[in-house]
């Protein structure tokens, strides 16, 4: 089965949204950057999480917050000190330079405050669409989708649309996301992709959205699940 455009515009996405939020209440992973609504801390976490595991990022995140507790201290950091701290993560030179560049831009051009909307956030050097969405959703609780590779994978399988990309996913999810629980949904679908709908061997039998998932319904009788 494959969903039509009318279905993805309407009830299927509303159903998916509700199911993921329900699942998220009991199943979200716990990370230190999920206990805060401070945009600075979320920005740091998202920068560390690029191309690395959450486990590796946790250790550096705590050290980084202790040494540079706010955007001003990061803006005055030396690249050498930051390199030393970030070295275990890899890509440390790029990360250090970008962190300092972003921090200086926010301090010098934005009065030291993170803007809450995506259009302004992506103007900051080093902040791309995903990080901007994460800051907007997790810090300011704006109703914007956070579409990473986990979310893309879940939606491609759920809809049986292998060509689905970030832009399409953003459009589809924007039509259902709500201010009151958008960040719970975003965390839920990210974690669903990270823990159940994994790149290989998706664990469909434990998946809360399997009853309407195209991949599951198309394969249930073929002994591949
Ligand atoms: S049912 Fe399987 S393929 Fe579909 S979203 Fe869940 S884990 Fe992924």
Can you summarize this structure?
The chain is 59% helix and 0% strand. The protein has 225 residues and is mostly helical. The protein has two domains: 5-29 and 144-219, Helix-hairpin-Helix base-excision DNA repair enzymes (C-terminal) (Endonuclease Iii, domain 2, Orthogonal Bundle), CATH 1.10.1670; 38-139, Hypothetical protein, domain 2 (Endonuclease III, domain 1, Orthogonal Bundle), CATH 1.10.340.
Provide an overview of this structure:
Helix 2 crosses helix 12. With 225 residues, the chain is mainly α. The longest helix has 18 residues, at 92-109. The protein has two domains: 5-29 and 144-219, Helix-hairpin-Helix base-excision DNA repair enzymes (C-terminal) (Endonuclease Iii, domain 2); 38-139, Hypothetical protein, domain 2 (Endonuclease III, domain 1), CATH 1.10.340.30. The model has no long low-confidence stretch (mean pLDDT 93). It is built from 13 helices and no strands. It is elongated and about 60 Å long. The chain binds iron/sulfur cluster (SF4). Iron/sulfur cluster binds at residues 154, 157-158, 196-197, 202-204, 207, 209-210, 213, 215-216. Iron/sulfur cluster (SF4) is lined by residues 154, 157-158, 196-197, 202-204, 207, 209-210, 213, 215-216.
Number of domains: 2
**Biggest pleated-sheet summary:** none
Summing up helix and strand content along with how strands pair, one would put the structural category as mainly alpha
What is the β-strand count?
0
Can you identify the CATH superfamily of the largest domain?
Hypothetical protein, domain 2
């Amino acid at each position: 089965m494959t969903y039509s455009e009318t279905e993805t515009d309407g009830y299927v996405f509303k159903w998916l949204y509700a199911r993921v939020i329900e699942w998220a209440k009991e199943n979200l992973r716990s990370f230190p950057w999920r206990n805060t609504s401070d945009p600075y801390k979320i920005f740091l976490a998202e920068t560390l999480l690029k191309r690395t595991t959450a486990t590796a990022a946790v250790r550096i995140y705590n050290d980084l917050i202790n040494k540079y507790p706010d955007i001003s201290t990061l803006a005055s950091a030396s690249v050498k000190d930051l390199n030393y701290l970030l070295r275990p993560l890899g890509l440390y030179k790029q990360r250090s330079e970008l962190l300092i560049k972003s921090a200086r831009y926010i301090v010098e051009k934005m009065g030291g405050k993170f803007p809450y909307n995506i259009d302004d956030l992506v103007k900051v050097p080093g902040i791309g669409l995903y990080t901007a969405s994460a800051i907007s959703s997790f810090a300011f609780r704006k109703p914007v989708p956070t579409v990473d590779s986990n979310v893309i994978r879940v939606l491609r399988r759920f809809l049986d649309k292998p060509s689905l990309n970030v832009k399409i996913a953003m459009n589809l999810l924007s039509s259902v996301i709500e201010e009151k629980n958008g960040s719970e949904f975003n965390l839920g679908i990210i974690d669903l992709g990270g823990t159940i709908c994994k790149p290989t061997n998706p664990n469909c039998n434990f998946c809360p959205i399997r009853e309407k998932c195209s991949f599951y319904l198309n394969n249930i009788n073929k002994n591949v699940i």
